[in-house]
Specification:
The complex is a heterodimer.
Chain A lengths: L16 E2 L10 E2 L2 E2 L4 E2 L5 E2 L3 E5 L2 E5 L7 H8 L18 E4 L2 E4 L12 E3 L7 H8 L9 H16 L13 H7 L10 H16 L1
Parallel strand pairs in A: 1-7, 6-10
Antiparallel strand pairs in A: 2-3, 4-5, 6-7, 8-9, 8-10
Chain B lengths: L4 E3 L4 H10 L3 E4 L5 H6 L7 E4 L8 E3 L5 E4 L4 H6 L1 H6 L1 H8 L4 H6 L2 H5 L6 H4 L41 H7 L3 E6 L2 E6 H4 L18 E7 L8 E6 L10 E10 L2 E10 L6 E2 L1 H7 L6 H12 L10 H22 L2
Parallel strand pairs in B: 1-3, 2-3
Antiparallel strand pairs in B: 4-5, 5-8, 6-7, 6-8, 9-10, 10-11, 11-12
Classes of the chains: A alpha+beta, B alpha+beta.
Bound molecules: flavin-adenine dinucleotide (FAD), iron/sulfur cluster and FE2/S2 (inorganic) cluster (2 copies).
The site of iron/sulfur cluster has 14 residues of chain B, from helix 8.
InterPro entries (chain B): CO_DH_flav_C, CO_DH_flav_C_dom_sf, Diverse_Substr_Oxidored, FAD-bd_PCMH, FAD-bd_PCMH-like_sf, FAD-bd_PCMH_sub1, FAD-bd_PCMH_sub2, Mopterin_DH_FAD-bd
Keywords (chain B): Oxidoreductase
Pfam families (chain B): CO_deh_flav_C, FAD_binding_5
Chain lengths: ~210, ~325
């Protein structure tokens, strides 16, 4: 997910769905750089442009403050309550979402950093892992589950792409899965079911 | 979070102009440390300059066999780079030992170099902290110090440097390339991070208007046989109590080349020069490894809560060197 090679997603047909409040005049234009990620309007003032993201396949256009977090934006502006706020410190993984297929923690992300990107939350993650978590009892209270599932999807594609881990085993062993999923905590301790669900899907992928 | 203006320049010159002219501006990499500290109110920038659009995300070969790593290369991408894994395995291992996969996908090399301490009193606005508020005192001195440093500390601050990546960079003699509107500079890693002394608020040699553009790794054949070992309170996803980055070359039973650096114990990423000196030319055996480790830890200043770190660091250094020596034997 290195900056220069991040695929930037264009709006699909039909144009962005509009969640924007009327664009407020904010920020200013100084020193040849745009403040508040603004664009200079005809009147010479800077207006905050809309943030455009594709979320779970649909183009969205959002009016957010620079300090709005990505997690809050997904939950409060788009009603996507799958991603959870566990710690808001990057420490639990409950807020994990996929950006252009790469897993990140959305609680330490500002929404403006992800302008032009494609976000997938558990709601849009159409993947056999969702059903496998149910089948293997990969949850008790379910609070960590959306983050676990998004993280596992990202993990499987990292593994397929040859990304190393500190376990460095041959194949996706249980120890490998545990290490590669160590960014997601489960207060209920449903780890055995989580592991089984992921191992099951990984084995089916391998066949 | 305190409101701020956000800019995302597309080229380095625009980023440098912005930081030179906007008072209270800060660069933003992956955001995993800065956004966290802004939310806690520890960092309060007026302008945030998002540098992730700058074309500084390549890893390039240098003519002498070294590598030049762009400041915006993500930690996960760097750890997976086949050249890093082959020539500097300790660096790949150090990166993989840090944080979580999600955080490594976000974190940049520049941000990792500048990540701030995890001292709980530094994070807690209600606690006294000389680093956060110069002259306020230090609640850690008589507090809970399990995570704190024992080398390079002062009476003003005993915070440990938290980075795993930087420990490997210290062992490898990396050079940090920085640029501002005033020009370019190259800062050796050993001079990049500062010891706390009486001014723990000054953490690096970087000026506020300087952008990290790259990190250079000089060619270092001994590093091809190197490793990073991290000891922590759980198997993964925790900061180091003690960590060791080591490279070792043994010829005819004697140490012909060695690099050693420590994490978790130093006020900055700790190059263990006393231990290296003790090892070089001597026997490559367990007794020598322990003596060298003890020579390094002799300078430790401990508190009741972190006194265990001298024994733990000594054992971890000796074990890491032993493993490397055994690998050498095995060819
Ligand atoms: C829960 C958790 C666990 C963690 N565990 C570990 C661990 O075990 N080991 C470890 O080593 N780390 C750990 N980390 C820390 C993590 O490695 C750092 O947060 C990360 O490396 C910072 O990189 P970033 O790009 O996100 O930096 P940012 O947060 O974007 O920036 C950090 C600082 O660097 C400055 N900056 C960024 N880029 C540049 C540049 N190019 N030039 C000049 N200044 C710049 C910013 O202004 C800011 O002051 C952990 C973090 C969290 C949240
Ligand atoms: S150890 Fe350093 S960072 Fe921690 S409270 Fe003391 S002065 Fe602050
Ligand atoms: S809420 Fe984001 S990691 Fe815990
Ligand atoms: S199922 Fe309850 S936290 Fe994981």
């Amino acid at each position: 997910m290195s900056g220069g090679t991040d695929p930037q997603q264009a709006d699909g047909p039909g144009g962005p769905r509009d969640h924007a409040r009327p664009a407020a005049d904010r920020g200013s234009h100084r020193n040849g750089v745009l403040l508040a990620s603004g664009v200079t309007s005809n009147s010479g003032r800077t207006v905050l442009p809309e943030l455009r993201m594709k979320v779970n396949g649909s183009p969205e256009s959002l009016d957010v403050e620079p300090w709005a977090g990505l997690l809050d934006t997904l939950r409060d502006k788009l009603g996507l309550t799958g991603p959870k706020k566990g710690c808001e410190q990057g420490a639990c993984g409950a807020c994990t979402v996929l950006v252009d297929g790469v897993r990140i923690v959305s609680c330490l992300a500002l929404a403006v950093q992800y302008d032009g990107r494609e976000i997938t939350t558990v709601e849009g993650a159409d993947h056999p892992l969702r059903e496998a978590f149910v089948r293997h009892d990969g949850l008790q209270c379910g609070y960590c589950t959306p983050g676990q599932i998004c993280s596992a999807i990202g993990m499987l594609s990292e593994y397929a792409a040859g990304m190393p881990s500190s376990v460095a085993a041959e194949g996706l062993t249980d120890d490998e899965i545990r290490e590669r999923m160590s960014g997601n905590l489960c207060r209920c301790g449903a780890y055995n079911g989580i592991l089984d669900a992921i191992a099951d899907v990984a084995a089916r992928d391998a066949r | 979070m305190k409101p701020f203006a956000y800019v995302k320049p597309a080229d380095v010159e625009a980023a440098l102009r912005a930081v030179a002219t906007e008072p209270g501006a800060k660069f933003l990499g992956g955001g995993t440390n800065l956004v966290d500290l802004m939310r806690e109110g520890v960092e309060r920038p007026d302008t945030v300059i998002d540098v992730t659009g700058l074309p500084l995300d390549a890893v390039d070969d240098l003519p002498d066999g070294g590598l030049r790593i762009g400041a915006l290369v993500r930690n996960s991408v760097l750890a997976a780079d086949p050249r890093i894994r082959a020539r500097y395995p300790m660096l790949s291992q150090a990166l993989l030992a840090g944080a979580s996969p999600q955080l490594r996908n976000m974190a940049t090399v520049g941000g990792n170099l500048l990540q701030r301490t995890r001292c709980a009193y530094f994070y807690d606005a209600a606690a006294a902290c000389n680093k956060r508020e110069p002259g306020a005192g230090c609640d850690a001195l008589d507090g809970f110090t399990r995570g704190h440093a024992v080398l390079g500390v002062s009476g003003s601050c005993i915070a440990a440097h938290p980075s795993d990546m930087c420990v490997a960079l210290a062992a490898l003699d990396a050079v940090v390339e920085v640029r501002s509107v005033r020009g370019d500079r190259r800062i050796p890693i050993g001079e990049f991070h500062l010891l706390p002394g009486d001014t723990p608020q000054n953490e690096t040699a970087l000026a506020p208007d300087e952008l990290i553009t790259a990190v250079e790794l000089p060619a270092l054949p001994v590093a091809a046989r190197s490793r990073y070992r991290k000891v922590r309170d759980r198997a993964s996803y925790a900061f180091a109590l003690v960590s060791v980055a080591a490279a070792l070359e043994v010829r005819d039973g004697a140490v012909a080349g060695v690099r050693l650096a420590l994490g978790g114990v130093g006020a900055k990423p700790w190059r263990a020069r006393a231990a290296e000196e003790a090892l070089l030319g001597g026997a490559a055996d367990e007794a020598a490894f322990r003596r060298a480790a003890e020579a390094e830890l002799a300078a430790a200043t401990v508190r009741p809560g972190n006194a265990f770190k001298t024994a733990l660091a000594t054992a971890t250094i000796a074990a890491t060197l032993r493993e490397l020596a055994r690998e050498e034997d095995a060819g």
